[in-house]
Amino acid sequence: MGPSPLVIAITALLVLSIPLFLHFVIYRSTSATSLPSFLLIGPSGSGKTSLLTLFERGHTANTHTSQVPLSVELSLPITTTTASSRYRSINDPSLQVHKRFLLSDTPGHGKLRYHALDSIVKPQNLKGIIFLIDAANVSTGTGGLGNEGLREAAEYLHDVLLLLQKRSTSSNTSRAPKEMPVLVAANKLDLFTALPAPLVKTALESEITNVRSSRAKGLLDSGIGIGDTDLGEEREWLGDGGEGKFEFSQMEEVNCPVTVLGGNVLGADGADVARWWDWIGSNL
Q1: Is residue 17 within 8 Å of 108, Cβ to Cβ?
Q2: Quick check: helix, strand or coil at residue 154?
Q3: How far apart are CA 40 and CA 90, in angstroms?
C-alpha cells in the first residue's frame, strides 16, 4: 500500500518551502550585515555626500552638510570588475552578487569626526577607506585659505593613519592584521586651481610631516620626548619612529597601502570617477 495523496502533498510542500525559507528569511536577514563595506571620510566641503549620491543614483543632486553617518548599498558599474571575480565568467549568475557593497558617508566637521574614527577602531567587514579631499583647497602657496585647507586635511588624515598604524603595532598576536587600503581621492580636478594628484600626494606628505613635528614639539615642551618608553615609540608616532620625512609608502609596513587618485564629482564635462570605482573593485 503506497503513501496517501495527503502525505505526498505535505512532503512536496516541505521540500519546496524549506529552501525558500532559508533563502528569503535567513539569507536576506544577514546579507545586509555581511556585505563588504567602505568608509567615506574627509574634511567638510570635500564633496563626500555628492560622491555618495553620484555612486547611488548615477547623477548628482543638491546636498547639505552631513550631521550623521549614512550607509547606502551600492553595486559596481558593469564595466568594473572585482578582484574576487577576475576569473569568473560574465555568464556566472553570482557575478553581480560579488559587486555589492556598503558605502558609509561620515560627517567631516571636526566635532563629528568621532563617527569615522569609531568605525575604524571597530570595523564591520571594512574593506577600505576613501579619504576625499578638495584638491582646489590644498595650495602650498603662502597665505590664503589654501594653507588652512591643507592643514585641516593633513591633521585629519594623520589621525586616521595613526589609528591604522596602532591597529598593527598594538596587536597581541604575531599575525599581521588584514590589509586596510586607503584611497586619497583628490576631488574637483576639473577646477583650474586644483592640484593634480601627484602634487596632492607631495603636499599631504609634507604637511603630515609638519603636523607630526608640531605635536612632537608640544610633547617635548610638556617634558615628554619621542623616545619615552611609556608612550611606545612605534605606536604614538606616525611613520618610521616619528623622525625624518613622512611618506605614504611607510604605511605599507603596517599593511595599510595608501593610493592617491584624482577625479571630480562635478564638472562641465560630467563626473570623472572611473579610477575611484576601479580602486573599490580591486579591493572587493
Answers
A1: no
A2: helix
A3: 29
What gap in Å lies between CA 172 and CA 123, rounded to an integer? Answer: 18
Alpha-carbon separation of residue 170 from 21, 165, 179, 206, 247 (angstroms): 43, 8, 15, 26, 21
- Quick one: pLDDT band at residue 22, thresholds 50, 70, 90? very low
The rounded distance, in Å, linking the Cα atoms of 101 and 111 is 28
Sheet holding 37-41, edge to edge: 70-75, 100-105, 37-41, 126-134, 182-187, 258-262
110-143 in b/e form (b: 16+ CB < 10 A) is: eebbebbeebbeeeeebbbbbbbbbbbbbbeeee
Q: State the residue for C-alpha cell 558609509.
A: 104
User: Higher confidence at residue 18 or residue 145?
Assistant: 18
Beta bridge partners, 261, equal: 185
SS3 of 185, please? strand
Q: Which H helix or E strand runs over 281?
A: helix 274-282
CA-to-CA distance for 72 and 88, rounded, in angstroms? 26
What's the mean pLDDT in 44-57? 93
d(CA 63, CA 55): 14
Tell me: pLDDT of 60 over 90. no
Mean pLDDT of the chain: 80
- Name the residue with higher pLDDT: 77 or 33: 77
Contact 141, 195 (CB under 8 A): no
Q: Residue holding cell 505535505?
A: 10
